[in-house]
Fold this sequence. Notes:
The complex is a heterodimer. By secondary structure, chain A is mainly alpha-helical. Chain A is 71% helix and 0% strand. Chain B is α+β, with helices and mostly antiparallel strands. The longest helix of chain B is centred in the last third of the chain and has 13 residues, at 185-197.
Amino acid sequence: MIQSTDEKDIEIERRFVPKAKDINDEIAWAQINKDVLRSMERPRLMYWVIFLASLALFGFGVYCEIYQYQNGLGVADLENPQVWGLYIATFIFWIGMSHSGTLLSAILHIMHADWRKPIYRFAEAMTTFSLMTAGLFVLVHLGRVWEFYYVVAYPNERWAWPNFNSPLVWDATAIGTYLTSSIVFLYFGMIPDLAICRDNAKGVRKKFYWLLSLGWQGTDRQWANFRVAYLTVACFLIPLAVSVHSIVATDFAVSQQPGWHITSFPPYFVAGALYSGCAAIITLFIVLRYVFRFEEYMTMPILDKTCRLTFAIAMVWTYLNLVEYASVWYGDDPVAKQTLLFRATGDYAAYWWAMNFLGSVVPFALAFKSLRNNIPVMLVVSLLLNLGMWLERFMIVTPTFAHGFYPWTWTDHWMPSWVQWGIVAGSFGWFSMLFMLFCKIFPTVSMYEVKEMVYHRFVARKARA
Amino acid sequence: MSLSNLIKNWSSLRVKRPYEGQYKDKDYKWAMVIDLDACTGCNACTTACYAENNLPVVGKEAFSKGQAMHWIRIERYWGEGDALPKFPERGAQFLPMLCQQCESAPCEVVCPVGATHHTPDGLNSQVYNRCIGSRYCSANCPYKVRYFNWWQYPERAWPNPLEQQLNPDVTVRSKGVMEKCTFCVQRLVEAKNRARTEGRKVEDGEVTTACAQACPTSAITFGNLADSKSQVAKMWERQQIDLAKDKQEKSDENMRGYRIFEDLRTYPSIVYMERIRDLQA
Lengths: 465, 281
């Protein structure tokens, strides 16, 4: 049997090209511009509902912080030995949230995973804003926030340096570097799109985009430089993303407290970070898809791939979590073992089991295709996963304080005050507020990269014909 | 110049502490012995410490929340298990807990700004002006003897004219800084200065901490470990406890002296003497 070339091509395509295409390749380039620019004009009513709700939450958080600033940290019901409370737990949560942006935009960029193109921009923005939120928690947590700059290594007339042995100094350095680099990366990737905005805007907005697009004309030379610069920053960012959460993990691993002094903490933290970040991407994916009518770009196949990625990372996290328990259980440290038992059976047992259930069992919902393609279910599941990851951070910080080395200081039923809850809620408001503002001002879908996706298919089809 | 200062500090930070014979040729190494057999749990030491070191009385509500500022606290333990008689037959036993002034202190390495660091005479000092209140030191302290200023205590604890009772030699701490037992450093500095003026070393018994001074049963002994003739040095010697060891080799099993959490390699400067119990009586 001799097949014609056409039939052969079709056969190859059937076997190797996935059936579900990421986006419809019939979309014209002009249509892409139009759709994305429209998102910056008139969003659905839901946009304003979310924006105003987050503004209100943020306002309440600011009120709580002012109250705490004026009266001292005592209003947070922190005590000896519960000295850290929700602030550090939520700090780790936000740092973790920032990791998936880099995963999607830098790591998958280098691996040429095309499906990331319509969704990496908002993931990248999520990285930047969650890092800013995490930075706020460091400040909220400090007893004398007005002296925070003592942590930064700068030459000064007092000849006093920070203590370079302390993981908190590594933290400040790592987070500062990561925040700067991810802002630069976010901005770099946006320049061609900002030029499109400039060409379509009027008045003040035109001036604004004109400034930001740095005279982008789309010449060959500009594109060549752009590619190199973008790849360089992407390569620079990847090790930073891994290092920043490893360093946050050393805050705990370097200390000698039971439940913290665990060698596997850095990879465990990085896995947990990617996990909660991916879950947050699913949540925001669904929100943006609805609010900005991005059904054409944030398609179900892309959601499906994100969910599968999240499932894989969830399993890595589960494995590392079990490694942590096993290494404590079979280790030769009776105090650490007792703290582990306290977590599983003591005052915080309900949270601990909830965290294990939400972190390790709920992700199996992502393994079923029918559930993966159900948007309301995915919204609930992704929120539950993030709740589980927040509980994980809470379960790292609190039980060790409640049940540490010294029996006389064991506390029972310690719970944070309304001020702490208010500031934590305010941080979510602050994050969503910034994120929603970003979506309104900047193109949330990378126009030029979506065009690439369409273009390649177009060329391939033309060549076949 | 700042950079050379950094390099100098950095190399001094990297010195492994403690090492054998660290204080052999030094003038001072402050240390303590607490005899639990003599302790009656009367809380005189705590009271004396409040008076000497300007500790705020936080009030009932804050105390019940665990925000008390007792640099030295009397811990009360009841017997547990079958071996020991229980309450109320035998009563409680007490353990005064204060900063152990560890030679290799877990709090010192983690402080981001170096607000807590080691002094040449073996104290674990706390610099209030440098402290930013990250509370990492307290998180890493296995004894939990560091106390944080959760409130602006100067306004609450000493309403006018009570501020007149404050000890002028001791800083009143503002909200947001960490504090802890200093071994009454203001007394030590004064004694050292006086001795230096007179061209001699501080003699044994010349200076003592407020808690040791107030203890009615003399359960607390304070002194200079670097001076082999001092009472503290003799007691450490008799109990065969070596400052630079994390596991003591004792010739006699019944020796009473021990240091708390020695296996964590914090090398505390306080030796506790176990209580003697007659289980038959």
